[in-house]
Design goal:
By secondary structure, this protein is an all-alpha fold. The protein has one domain. The protein contains two helices and no strands. 0% of the residues are buried.
């Protein structure tokens, strides 16, 4: 899991990106820095 995102979240992001012709998704905050805690919800 890249960026500590579950497979379900990655599938949903991929589905929505395709559905709405999104070419780029940007993470910010602790997820982008890699300092997030695994128990924090997004």
């Amino acid at each position: 899991m890249k960026y500590d995102l579950s497979d379900r979240i990655l599938r949903e992001l991929s589905f929505l990106a395709h559905k709405y012709s999104v070419t780029k998704i940007v993470l910010f905050g602790s997820r982008a820095r890699g300092t997030n805690w695994s128990y924090v919800k997004i």
